[in-house]
Structures are given as C-alpha cells and as structure tokens.
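Can you give me the bound-state structure? Components:
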Amino acid sequence: MAPSILVLGTFAIAPIFYALFLSFQKVQLLGGIEYQFAGWRNFARLVEDDRLGIALRNTAEYVAIVVPTQTILALILAVTLNAGIKGKNWWRIIYFLPTVTSSAVLTLIFMWIYNTDGLLNHFLAFWGLPTYNWLGDPAVALKGIMLMNIWSTAPFFMVIYLAALQDIPKSLYEAAALDGANQWEQFFCITLPLLKPVTFFVVAIGVIGTFQLFDQSYIFSGGTGGPNNATLTIVLLIYQAVFRDLQMGYAAAIAFLLAAIIISITLIQRQFLGSEKFD
Amino acid sequence: MARRQLQFDNWHLVWFKGLIYVLLILYAAVTLIPFLWALSASFKPLSEIVSGEINFFPRHFTLENYRQVFLREPLFLRWFFNSAIVAISVTASNLLFNSMAGYALARLQFRGRGFWFFLVLAVLAIPIQVTLIPTFLILKSFGWLNSYQGAIVPSMVNATFIFMMRQFFVNFPQELEEAAQLDGLNRFEIFWQIVLPLAKPALAAQAVFVFMSSWNNFLLPIVILFEPEMFTLPLGLNTFKGQYISYWNYIMAASMVFTLPALGIYAFFNRYFIEGIALSGSKK
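Here's the bound-state model for the whole set.
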C-alpha cells in the first residue's frame, strides 16, 4: 500500500493541487521555474481565446458524432455476434484488432488510406461517389479522424455489450416468444431495457475518451491542429500552450475547464440515464 | 396450417441467419482491409506504391523496406528497446502495487481507509491532462525528464486497476484466508501464497491492459521525452513519418514491426483480455 500511496500521491494527487496553483500563476520557464501571481487572469483569457473556441467546437462536434455512432455500432455488432452463430470467438478476435493497435500506427495507416491518391478515394470513385482531399481540406479532416476512431473503438464497447448480453437470462426470451413476441419486439422490450446500465457505462467512458482526443489530431496535423485549425482539440491546445507558447498557467486553466466539462457531462448523464449500478 | 407456419419459420430463420453472416463478413472486411493494405504496402517497392494501383498482393515482393527500417535506421532498434523496457517495468510494478493496494483497501483495517479509497476514486474522475503539466514540472525538478525513470515512475500505479482489484478482493471468499490464518500464516504470507495465486485471471487481464496502454502511450512520452535516443516507438514512428514524408513503404514496414508484439500478446492472452474488459465493464 505504501508505494502506491507514494506514487499516486506524487503523480496524481499532488499534481491536482499543483495544477490548481499553476492556474493562478504566470509561469516563467527559463532554466529554473519562476512564478508570479496572476489572479484570475488565466481564466479570463479562456473567454477571449479564439482558438479555444475553435477547439471546443471541434471537440464537441467530435464527441456528439462519435459517441452515439460507436455506441450503436457496438450494440449492433454485439447483438449480431450473440445471435447463435458459429465461430463467435474468431469473429470477436478479428473485430477486436483495431482496439489493440496503437493510435500512432492506426493514424499513419489511415493517413495513407486518406491520401488524395489513396485507397479510400479509389473506393469512392469506383462507386461514383465524390472524392476528397481528406488530409488537407478543413471541411473533412476532422471527419476523417471521426471515421477512424469510430472504427477503432466500437469493438472495445462491443465486448462490454457482449459480456452484458450473456447475463440476460434465456428464460426471458423464451417467455416472450411464447407470448408471440418476434425478434424485434424481444430486442426492444427485453434486450435494450436490460442493457441500460451498461449503456450508461459505455456512453460515460465514450464521452470521457472522446473529449481527450489528442494522439490522432497531433499525428494527423503534425502537431499544428491544421488544416486551418480543423483538427484542433482541447488537449492539443493544452499541449501547444505548454510547449509552443510556454504558458503553463494558462494550460492548467484549460485543463481545469476540460475536467469541469467532463465531470459535469458525466453527472448530467447520470441524472438522465440514472444508473444504480455505477458508483 | 401449423406445418405451413413451421415451414415459414424455417425459411425465415435461414434468411435471418444468412443476413447475419453477410453482416459479419462485411464488417470483418471493413476491419481487416486497412491492416492488409498496410501489410501489403510494407512488402512493396515505392514505385509500385506511387503507381496508385490497387493490388493487395505485391507485384514485386521485397523485404527491402524492413531492411531499411532495421539496418539503416540507427534509432529504430533503440526505440523498440526503450518501449520494451518501459512497458515491462510499468506492467510489473502495476501488477504488484495495484493488487497490494486493492487488497489493503478491501481487507485490511487501517486508519483512514475510507479516505484513501475516496482519493483513489477522485483520481479516477480527474482527466490525465490536469496532472500532465504538474507531472512534467515535478519530473523536471527531479531531473528525470528524458529518462527511463521519468517514463516509468508516473505510470507505476493506476487508480482504475486499484479499484478493479479492490472489487475483486471484496468478492474473494474470506474463509480461505481465515483458514490460512489458523494455520499460522501472517498477512504477508497469506497475500503471497493464498490470495495472489488465486487472483491470476484478474492479474492476467490487468497485465495485458497495462502493457498495451504503456506500449501504445503517446501523450506522456511526448511531453517528457525529447531526445530521439530516448523516444519510445510511438514517438519514433511519428518522427519517422516526418523524415520519410511520402515513403509510405518504410512507414508501413515500421508500423508493422511496432504492431507485432502487441498483436502477439493479444493473441496469447485474448481470453483474459476479453474477460478483463467484461470485468471492468460489469463490476462498475
């Protein structure tokens, strides 16, 4: 226990207070570290910063599209895999591949597929669909990251749904079938309501994860958040504030804003979906 | 009438099964194509890649890309080695400390137990980005930036898995421990000889998770490691991309080498991995 307290204390708990302290300071990082009390100035800057507005909008759009899509896709995959098919394990192993692959590798593979002359555009052209400059066009760059992340995280939540589906007693379905309920009715009247606590968990984890989007944006844009700030996310902005602009205090203030957003959304969602199992 | 209904049901069932298999195969294709496309590129010469032809089987099969990555890229093996050191140390220490802390929170009576448990939960709720900048400054004051300690120590324990292990130990049959106590074993002996061996599935799941997340971690290393010799593979790969901008053959070969160990571990521990997710999903 003692080592855990030491490490958690030094690298998790102390930093929270340290971050709180930083967010009220102007920090000079020249050789040593110098602090200068800044009052609420870092937080006041949050309101004025145009790029923060862009980052918030991008991240919100990303969360609003990715979380529902990946949750529904995960549910469909899990229910399909649970429909008594052969070789369930093998399908699961295949589907799960993207989840164990590093975000750096996936981003590089997708950047290559997204090339103007890449696989995706060839595919779109083959079906007579419009092609895009996925990496360079601000209108679609973030969509490209969304597509990739839905593809790579849905299987993770699929596994959680699969485990939950195993726990639903077979007798419920048998009883419903005797009462003449077809498969759709069984799905909507038994499966969905019983999965509600799991759905809460999946959405909560999904929201937390998507708000923290960084790796993909960073690699995609070479750290700039481009083209034209289209892939700028909150965490990328924090990174830039620290290492490009050397403004630790302001970066800490953004980090607290992010924490506040994540925690309040989780709490609101808890009110709505009301899960007794989650604590 | 009843028989016709039955026939209709059978036909309906066959049709339904067929649809399900078509869906499964389509999604498997969606999953695999990016990987196969990358794998095939890693065996193609650049000229074949830029020709824009869509062929999954290389026309001119070559190992040249892998040779370039391993032999002529001096830092690649170093990055591989760095990643291995960091991931293995982080995994080992997490297994030890998380289970000890989880066990203590579940079983031992000590002062402030409720408080410590609350702290673990609080850490769970705070996103990593909040602690990232202070972690950077703390490591800087220790002189640990750009070092193995810097990459390892902040990740040595994990609140999520302390929580998971606590849940596991709370549900663990207490009678076993009581019997061992009657046999004269002390707390440490009970933990080492009775509890840990029985916690193997939970430990295996945890090991795979921690290893994967350390092996694939991008945010912490990019903040604390800045000399190319100290880079872990994800950072190295990103640098590699900067160096060989449109040499997709080299980039894909490097990506494949990077992915292989994680895939091997996943294939080996597949069962535990799935169990672990199920565990963390349903226990919360």
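A couple of observations. Chain B has two domains: 2-65, 73-283. The radius of gyration of chain B is 25 Å.
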